[in-house]
Amino acid sequence: MTDLLLWEMIERMSVAATLAFLLSQFSVFRRMIYRQGNFSEKAAITIIFGFIGILGTYAGIPVGDALANSRVIGVMAAGLIGGPIMGTAAGVIAGGHRYLLGGFTAFSCGISSIFEGLLAGLIRRYYHEKLIPWWIAFVAGVVGEVLQMIIILLTAHPYEMAKNLVDAIGMPMILVNSLGVAIFMLIIKTAMYTQEQVGAEQSHKALDIATKTLPYLRHGLDRSSAQATAQIIFNAGSYEAVAITDTEQVLAFVGVESTHHSADTLGLTLATSQVLSKGELYIAQNALEIGCSCKNCKLASAIIVPLKRANRVIGTLKLYYTRANAVGHGDRVFASGIAHLFSTQLELTEIDRQAKLVSRAELKALYAQINPHFLFNTLNTITSLVRTKPDLARELLLKLGAMFRHTLHKTGRNITLKEELSQVRAYLTIEQARHGEKLVIQEMISEEVEKYLIPTLTIQPLVENAIKHGLQPKENGGCIIISAKEDGQDIVITIRDDGVGMDVKGRCPLAAPAPECIGLSNVHERLRGQYGVGYGLSLLSAPGSGTTVTLRIPKRVYDEGEECA
């Protein structure tokens, strides 16, 4: 009897698995996986899972005055995807239906369904945004079904009938339903993998569009650059309409309903105003959420992302569909990626504008540190990583943006050694992504020295010089060691590499700088100019023996002319 029951349950459990697969193909379900669904969508999915539980009851196999069923699959799946509230609600729906069917286990099965949904939801809360592994789902199913058997034994009467029932259905239900819950989570994993593939493709598409828009956005965000940019995105063929705004008006609108969404007709939509004020991405899945003042507007869903410069919102990018509930995870990945790239381009444009306002000496110092080839190579590296390692590509973009923000806001100032090292580490993160195992970095930094001031852009050009002229010519790369310590009234910082070295006796780069060593001489002269001839750089090197650059500056925790706090 047990073996026969086991195979019959496996046969009927496949119905729930098939429903799970069909459900995973709907965008609303995928939004639930990424916790992007609104209240009405969550309620709808909860009801669906509840009905999957009811279907599991109807597909049950009569055993005496009870049913061996797969109701738990729908209930626990709701909890594992949506959390305690969805799991409990689905349990109430499926369990309440079972209670109304009657039988001596009606109350036991009804209450156990609720507890199983709650249990699955609590597990989901523990995992937060991470996907629950299939084996955890299997264990959760085992625990949930064991709990149901215990509840039957404790609440169903007469006890002898309850015990006989548990003996008959216990093991088959525990095994089959636990397997069903695990299969459900595997189906979800497949759906998420598909979305990740779409996300990688969207990231690549965003980078391609960013490359095409670079010549326009380098002039800043105005009507001309916005119109060209919106047209490029629209021509990619994914959206029915594309718009770009600043903080006050629509700069460009291309596509459906462009006649009444231009700057000369309607103002900003409610959704756009919300993004401008909060600085956060917003998804509108219907016309009401878009908030267009035109009653007959055909635009039915949209994703709106802020455009920022130096963490300040300067406008928005809006991507529209003419059908409701059309915005999916791939749109979110694309919109976030393209907005971040646009923001970086606009920030670089602002850097360029600010750089033109500084003195000629500071401009030369800046250009001495930021090698255009470094930027070119970094962008190539990011391009190659967009599809294979999108998270790493995003991290490198953030590091690149941080470097340029640092250059813009800190040039010509003294900062703490801790801040300077943070800039150096951002640079090295990018270089290690390019060179991989060929570049090894070691640090020996005394915490006591991190509070002292140092001119900005002092260590990074020395590290760049070590990589470019010391390690790159070596086939197997090498190691760079950065150390900093106190030495009496001074700070001594050392950058040591095991690269190809140079003949400093024949020609010292500090005394007679060669074009390839302009970074070294620039740092040396700036230090001597600020602190005097007793400070600056010293070099120790020989061909084939690596290079050691030593930097010496006085201890200072506040700039001259300031009072010590």
UniProtKB/TrEMBL annotation:
Its main location: membrane. One of its GO terms (molecular function) is ATP binding. The chain crosses the membrane at residues 12-31, 43-61, 73-93, 100-123, 135-156, 168-188. Its EC number is 2.7.13.3. It is found in: Cell membrane. Residues 458-556 form the Histidine kinase/HSP90-like ATPase domain. This is histidine kinase. It comes from Pelosinus fermentans B4.
